[in-house]
Amino acid sequence: MTDRRSILKASLLAPALLARPASAATGPAGIQMKLPCVVSTWPFGVAANKAAWTVLSKGGRALDAVETGVKIPEADMKNHTVGRAGYPDRDGHVTLDACIMDEHGNAGSVAAMEFIAHPISVARAVMEKTPHVMLAGEGATQFAIEQGFKREELLTPESKKAWQEWLKTAKYKPEANIETKSYGLGVPGGAKNHDTIGMLAIDAKGNLSGACTTSGMAWKVRGRVGDSPIIGAGLYVDNEVGGATSTGVGEEVMRSVGSFLVVELMRQGMSPQAACKAAVERILKKNPGAKTEQVGYLAINKKGEVGAWAIQKGFSYSLCDQTSQDRIVPGQAFFEATPGN
Ligand code: SD4
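Structure tokens for the assembled complex are given below, as produced in the milestone run.
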């Protein structure tokens, strides 16, 4: 007799993918953190985690920790993929996406929001001060201003220059993963392309929260929204099970509702690492062409076990607990990185 779980497992294990892993079977199966702890995507997560740790180490709430943490890259002028100084859309507008989720399953989000430097805090205000989950575009900016956030120009001279360079040759045509090809996005120590921060924390009471914030794909079509503000795609937290977040080409994540999938697979008994791997596999099974793109998942379960998996090598994540505050771990992946990735 085949049970439901083995059918699901079989459908996830695409034989062609298993035949050609770059490093699929090597490395640790997962990392056990001491609670409380915080984890986040990419090496710039170290600074963000440290800020989150100031909250967690004093017995603070995971929700406050993740908001405090991701505000660091949102404010970083050298980071062109999150918050202020993010690269604009193809018309030169910086539009930001962010979402947040707490231990009660409450969620808040803003999409394609302009002129507000800390979208994560606006997402939290949507969660706590409105009956809604998501506000988009001009309405999100208007709500933020009503809440006392400052309206400011987020396009910096450096980002404007990079956009103008792109315009010279791009024929006004956005392309997934274009960042990998020539424009050198990213921050020192980070990958060259997609650098969204997704953060997951467990506080001293054992409660989980998560946050995700980005300026999205550079030079995107005006109005494009990625996975990062979509609850279930860029982030999902279930206090009974664990949390997951994603980085990379958001269209792939949205089509497979990736972070929700990772959490549901953990609910069925998979480790965080196995669940992330299966979610990446799901993308590749439906769209084998996605192997030239990057998507990375990061997950943590209720016990503080952490795992991650990506399409391509090059994804990494940052870990912080009382034993170590600045640990960076390379993510495992199915394929070697596409040149430039
Ligand atoms: C998006 N997922 O807008 C985001 C981009 C990203 O790391 O993750 N960058 O598609």
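The pocket of N-hydroxy-L-asparagine is lined by residues 81, 194-196, 214, 216-217, 226-228, 247-250 (CB under 6 Å). The domain at 34-335 is CATH 3.60.20.30 (Glutamine Phosphoribosylpyrophosphate, subunit 1, domain 1). Further analysis is deferred to the final report.
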